Amino acid sequence: MEVREAGTEFDCGLKMGGKVEVILNTQLKQQKDPKEAITIAISARALFDMEEEHELFLSEGRETFETFQLTNEDVPLKEGIVYPFIKAVQMVNARLLARNPEEKQLFEIILLSTHSAEGGVRIINSVNYYGLEISKFCFLNGSDPSKYLHSNNVKLFLSACESAVCNALKKDIPAALMLHQQYQTAQEHLKVAFDGDSVLFSDETDVVFKEKGLDAVIKYEKDREHVPIGEGPLKEFAMILGEMKKKFSPENDPINTYLVTARSGNDMGIRAIKTLRNWGLKIDEAFFMAGSPKGPLLSHIQPHIFFDDNARNIKGARAYGIPSAFVPSGCE
């Protein structure tokens, strides 16, 4: 589960209680329909590069951090790891509305910060500076973000706070840890890549492999070839993307989805393919890596986000500048 690098600190300043401040973004031309929208929640530190500011918070405390933010509130924050994904999501919204101006099933983005609204003006100003379509800002004053995800019907939560991600996953909310990194992504389309086991699928096969080894897991998969694999934490979000893709003709589809799994195609690929078929989920391209490094392939795809539960795969993808979303398993 460990993905942190030397010197990396994930302390998010979470505490019990805390006043929650919610600010609607009145600069948006059109607010999304909360009953129909696909809500994605992101943390401020995932959307923007706030590593220096976070280091100040850890070393000098909340008051010094907020004073710094107030002093620099007109200085836009730098783009963070989730930024290109959000811009691509906005592109999909624009394409949906161009196709049907009455479309209601749109992506809605809400931003969560564990800090106060007083120190959050710089975040709001940065959102407006980049023209990001954030519907509302939730300043939690140290409260655990996962407490507010269900009430907002969040379908995906991306955060730079490990404990917040684990808390969300324990409440069955799709979530992933996004760490600051250098990145490169495709300019066209929304490209999303998923690992298989413990991400798109459940961890049942991983458990057998860890407990009994490769030969046993191959037999396990062959014996259950016609039994769909259990659902993983990102299955629902993948299904949502699949439904959105159906709104477009193949030649005009702005969404590309990928399965990049460590499974081998010959021994363990058939059950995975049949599971996707059973779900009615069409993936644009599926790659069965048979344990090979995923980084080189992902560098060719250049997804806006890559979900994986394996720290080695995350590290390998990051080395190629791929925005990597760690889905921790076994959160305590």
Task: Characterise this structure.
With 332 residues, the protein is an alpha/beta fold. It has 12 helices and 13 strands. It has helices spanning 44-47, 51-60, 62-71, 83-99, 121-130, 162-170, 204-212, 214-223, 235-245, 265-279, 295-301, 311-319, and strands at residues 21-24, 38-43, 48-49, 78-79, 107-113, 134-139, 154-159, 175-178, 190-194, 255-261, 285-288, 305-308, 324-326. The strands form 2 sheets. The protein has an 11-stranded mixed beta sheet, with helices on both faces. Strands 3-4 form a two-stranded antiparallel ribbon. β7, α6 and β8 (175-178) form a beta-alpha-beta unit. α2 (51-60) crosses α3 (62-71), α7 (204-212) runs antiparallel to α8 and α11 packs across α12 (311-319). The longest helix is centred in the N-terminal third of the chain and has 17 residues, at 83-99. Residues 1-11 have low confidence and may be disordered. This is 5'-nucleotidase. InterPro entries: 5-nucleotidase. It comes from Scyliorhinus torazame (Cloudy catshark).
Quick structural gist:
The chain has 332 residues and is α/β, with parallel strands linked by helices. It is 36% helix and 18% strand.
What CATH calls the topology of the largest domain is Rossmann fold
Structural class: alpha/beta
CATH architecture of the largest domain: 3-Layer(aba) Sandwich
Biggest sheet: strands, sense, closure? 11 strands, mixed
Mean pLDDT, all residues: 88
Low-confidence stretches: 1-11
Name the helix and strand elements from N-terminus to C-terminus, one letter apiece: EEHEHHEHEHEEHEEHHHEHEHEHE
Assigned CATH class of the largest domain? Alpha Beta
Strand order of the largest sheet: 1-6-5-2-7-8-13-12-9-10-11
Q: Whole-Å distance between the termini?
A: 11 Å
Please state the CA-atom Rg, rounded to the nearest Å. Answer: 20 Å
State the shape.
globular
Q: Give the tally of β-strands.
A: 13
Number of helices: 12
Strand percentage:
15-25%
Integer tally of domains: 2
Portion of residues in helices?
25-40%
Protein name: 5'-nucleotidase
Organism: Scyliorhinus torazame
GO molecular function, one term: nucleotide binding
InterPro entries: 5-nucleotidase
